Amino acid sequence: MLVTGATGFLGGHVCAALAARGVAVRGLVRRAGARLPGGAVSALARGLDDIGALREALRGAEGVVHLAARVHVPSDRGGEAAFHAVNVEGTRTLLSEAIAAGVRAFVFVSSVKAVGERSEEPWDETTPPAPLDAYGRSKLEAETIIRSLAQRHGIHAPILRLPLVYGPGMKGNALRLFRLVDRGWPLPLGSVRNRRSLLFTGNLVAAVLATLESPSGSETFFVTDAEAPSTPELVTAIAHALGRPPRMLPFPTALLRALGLAGDLVARTLPFPLTSEAVDRLATSLVVDGSRLVLATGYTRPYTLTEGMRLTAEWYRARGEGR
């Protein structure tokens, strides 16, 4: 099995889970000497346009889990073309070479951003996509290419759309929120009334395995934890996992948005956690319905939100954070 993005946050979990099931795992990496979990071996490639390296990496592989991508970050200035080159053309090249190599399964890890940014009612796979940024548009275009090539060549090609993923090894906003809660910062989130779908790494890995093993799983699926907590509920779950009291202040949402706008100005020169983009994620709803994956493959979620937070907190403490 070839795993792209093998040294990333999600790639490490997927490599370890596949190896634990006795699967020979090859991880596509961009630097020599990269260490992979679970006994996975590395396959070196400059990028997804390195045809010779891709062909060598795909030799003898029965399946591919494609996690590598140019990801969305608030400070990204790469523009549409940069996302298109990696997420669209890179995916097209990888899948074309996988088909030529006789690969039987190709799991593509996409994002809810391929559909949009907010949803008051749960999205399902029939929801018309309306991505709002270059990352989301590139993921949606890649999905279209995968579906077309998979149908033409008869390859098993599940597409998994993920919300925010948390768990051991996480970075970015999820880790920042853990740190703020752990340090006892009084967060101005007590008045927020929303719902956000999340995904624990252990539930993601189970979804990858379910789609690989189920012949009926060659579709597009949202993947999510069973719970969709509000932001105050999420902060409370993190605090309990860390053994901290949840500290939140009631704060009008309109004022919270004003603080985000002020944060945009500060963030131009200094690191600042509260920007308009951060407020959007914390104050708005984004809920997806993961039932189609369950019905199509028999997928079951091994972890609840409480269990996922507990395991994440154990990792957080083990790496020397906080106490």
Fold and architecture overview:
The protein has helices at residues 9-20, 51-58, 79-100, 134-153, 172-182, 201-213, 231-242, 253-266, 276-283, 291-297, 305-318; strands at 2-4, 26-29, 41-44, 63-66, 105-111, 119-123, 159-162, 164-166, 198-200, 220-222, 286-288. α1 (9-20) packs across α6 (201-213) and α5 (172-182) packs across α7. β8 (164-166), α5 and β9 form a beta-alpha-beta unit. The longest helix is centred in the N-terminal third of the chain and has 22 residues, at 79-100. It has 323 residues and is of the alpha/beta class. It folds into two domains: 2-157, Rossmann fold; 172-193 and 230-283, no CATH class. Strands 3-2-1-4-5-7-10 form a seven-stranded parallel sheet, with helices on both faces. A two-stranded parallel sheet has the order 6-11. It is built from eleven helices and eleven strands. The protein starts with a strand and ends in a 5-residue tail after the last helix.
Describe the structure using short key phrases:
about 325 residues; alpha/beta; Rossmann fold; 2 domains; 7-stranded parallel β-sheet; two-stranded parallel sheet; 11 helices; 11 strands; globular
* Largest sheet, spatial ordering of strands: 3-2-1-4-5-7-10
Gyration radius, to the nearest Å?
20 Å
Q: What's the CATH H-level homologous superfamily of the largest domain?
A: NAD(P)-binding Rossmann-like Domain
Low-confidence stretches: none
Number of domains: 2
What is the distance, rounded to the nearest whole angstrom, between the alpha carbons of the first and last residues?
39 Å
What's the number of extended β-strand segments? 11
Helical content band: 40-55%
CATH architectural label of the largest domain: 3-Layer(aba) Sandwich
CATH topology of the largest domain: Rossmann fold
Helix and strand composition category: alpha/beta
Main sheet overview: 7 strands, parallel
In percent, how much strand structure appears in the residues?
Answer: 5-15%
- Total helical segments: 11
The ordered H/E elements are EHEEHEHEEHEEHEHEHHHEHH
Shape: globular
CATH class of the largest domain: Alpha Beta
The whole-number mean of residue pLDDT values reads 88
